[in-house]
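Residues and backbone
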Amino acid sequence: MKKHFLTFATNFKNENPYLKEWLDYHLKVGVDHFYLYDQDGGEEARELLRPYEDKGQVTRHLWTKWDGTKYDGATKWYQRNKNHMGFAHAAKTYRTEFQWLMKIDVDEFLYPLNDGPNLTDWLKKVDVKKFKGVKIPRINFGNNNHVTKPTEPLLKAYTLREASYSDHKDLGNGDFLSSNRFAYSAHWWHYKKCKFGKMLANLEEIDWRINHYYTKSEEEYLSRQNVSGGRPVGLDGFREKNEGCNEIVDEGMLKFLD
């Protein structure tokens, strides 16, 4: 019996306005534990996370030791950086403690489909002896025509999305994960070469999706230009990433709000 069933590995920096809503939502829908790699390093983040750490829901690693090194920079193709190192640390250090682990950001929310109230209702049906991972589809939500940061919760403020899935992320089975030393991606894991397992990738068999709130309002997008060098900059960058992401009204997440 594993210590945790469903867990997250997450790097965060300058996410304090969103962390509590993200944590509380995922605890509500069945996530057991969070391995958080704190690139912020500030007192506000420490105090915000302290109650979750005290309850054993969060393991926080101060991850500022790489600041100013060659690992501190934008994620480039096949370049090791501190984000990848955080994910690899979680896989190598904790893979015997959890059954499932996902690389996920604070702007991504796992959503149970088919009116499921809990993420684990479906996940417990996945054969952990057969499947080494699951490809969870991801869909982008737009700015909902917000120019400035709304005062209401994120999940209530942003209810417009693109029409179809545009990406995915892997949910990894801890029994199959390698140390992930050379897994230079925020989307997929490396698995043990000597242990055979299948990937579950058929959308009709997967009862989750990732809701991705990347742009948020125009103001929020522009304020986060320096967080990731991979973000297109300026208003043109915002329009590029926001294009096509306000096409469908989707209020499915509202049922999880208090």
The chain is about 25% helix and 25% strand. Residues 108 and 212 are 5 Å apart (CA to CA). The mean pLDDT is 93.
